[in-house]
Design a protein that fits this description.
The protein contains 17 helices and no strands. By secondary structure, the protein is mainly α. It folds into 4 domains: 48 residues, no CATH class; 79 residues, Alpha Horseshoe (Serine Threonine Protein Phosphatase 5, Tetratricopeptide repeat), CATH 1.25.40; 64 residues, no CATH class; 61 residues, no CATH class. The chain is elongated, with a radius of gyration of 33 Å.
Length: 332
Amino acid sequence: MLVTLFSLARSHINRSGKGELAMKHESVKRVASVAVGLSMVLGAAGCSRDHIEAINVANEADKSLKVNVEGAIEKYEAATRLDPTNHLIFAKLANAYQKKEDWDKMASTLAHAVQLAPEFANYSYRRGFALMQKAAQGNPDAYEEAKQPLQKCIEADPNYAECYHELGTANLWTDNEQAALENWTKAIEHDPTVPYFYPPLAETLVAFKMYDQAEAVLKEGTRIIQPSDEHTKNNLYGMYVLLSMVYQARGDKPSMVSALEKANDVAGDQNPEIGFNLGSTYAVMNPPQKEKAVRLLNSFSKRVCKGAQAAEKFKDQCATASDLIQKLGGTQ
């Protein structure tokens, strides 16, 4: 169409003769302008078709994601080729890679999304999260790499609590404990309702013998977090165990026992060692609480010490539990 219009313009000039060329100059310019404008419209229409087709392909991928991740990934990738400017499609592709636990591709895909929409803090967070997972699976250099997107997340949204938390973990693994403490604290300040924010901060404070600060964090966490599901119970369990360590370091036996009892209340099947920890504590109290000690130590032995793999993991505790039960006059 564009070539045809320019050809018509040239033939019109030729037919008019050299003497009339100047008179036809404005007419030719108008024809050329129309041709260029039409070209832009046609080009825009092509882009629009690709954009719509990309969305259609991505929608097809959405439908197959739950049952066929690989097939969904192929469709999402095709959609990004049709429209490489749609950051939402890149985000969907990253989600598919996350289902595969392909952290490398998840991170690189989100790097594209961040370039297209840097104001979307969630893209930077998820890229940082992917790199943290990569690091946890045996590539420690990725902890350093994760810092940059997590910091960009905070720049884009200073209230994004998870970004502070993940950045704190990256700081810890790159030997910057002070920055870790600061960022974990900010995570709790921005969202104190997240159960898993508390244990790493308190554990690091205990490791540095900052017992007053650790106690304050743990008391706040156990006050706010309610044992509503297994996830919160597991984090509460960790908080109470850490709290017992604080009291043990201070020589406050009654408070230590109280914290272990609360840990036992929320322990669940994932933490069988609480039976040994609390039972052995009852056993060495003055006077010993024999009945409670024997019951808990027997429960621990039955749950843990009968299986070969578990017995190896808790070898020393199983041996100690057996000795304590005998000394207390109990039976196994």
